[in-house]
Amino acid sequence: MTASSDQAAIAALTQRMVSGWAYGEAETIANLFVEDGTMILAGVFCNGRDEIRDYFAKAFEGKYKGTQVTGKPIGIRVLGPDVAILLSSGGVLESGETEVSENGAIRASWLVVRRDGEWRLAAYQNSPRFDASATGVSRAA
Predict the structure, then answer these.
(1) b or e along 100-126 (b: 16 or more beta carbons within 10 Å of the residue's beta carbon)?
(2) Which secondary structure element, helix H or strand E, spans residue 59, and what is its range?
(3) Residue 132's pLDDT band (cuts 50, 70, 90)
(4) pLDDT per position as a tens digit, 26-77
(5) Contacts of 43 by beta carbon, 8 Å cutoff, 6+ apart
(6) Nearest residue to 3 (alpha-carbon basis) of 62, 104, 13, 11
(7) Whole-prediction pTM value?
(8) What is the dihedral of CA 47, 48, 54, 58, to 10 degrees?
(9) In angstroms, rounded to a whole number, what is the distance separating the alpha carbons of residues 137 and 134?
(10) How far is residue 95's CA from residue 113's CA, in Å, rounded to a whole number?
(11) What are the φ/ψ torsions at residue 85 (nearest 5 degrees)?
């Protein structure tokens, strides 16, 4: 792969997540991760693809039922031939929403690795998007 095709494949992970979520496919989302991948969300720690799959299967029947997710890359940093960091911005859209609410907006770090020629998540973590106007503290976007 060329550098630009690698970057496109890495960036496409966000849309693969959006697509899997749109159809409530826990398996699709889990398969974005390497077998021993980790996922950290507020109050959630999943270690391994099976735990990630189980988490989303339950979440799509509960708190994420009827939701959509949005996300777009805001930065990609290639660290080596098979390792990169993808930064994204997005969040969960509640039923009927067309834009992520301020309270639901997140930024995420995706540690991605190339395994068997395919880019996958080794680790994913998100945090609420910082609202600088609420505190008067300036932060980079």
Answers:
(1) beeebbbbbebbbbbeeeebbbebbbb
(2) helix 49-61
(3) low
(4) 999 999 999 999 999 999 999 999 999 999 999 999 999 999 999 999 999 9
(5) none
(6) 11
(7) 0.88
(8) 40
(9) 8
(10) 33
(11) -115, 130
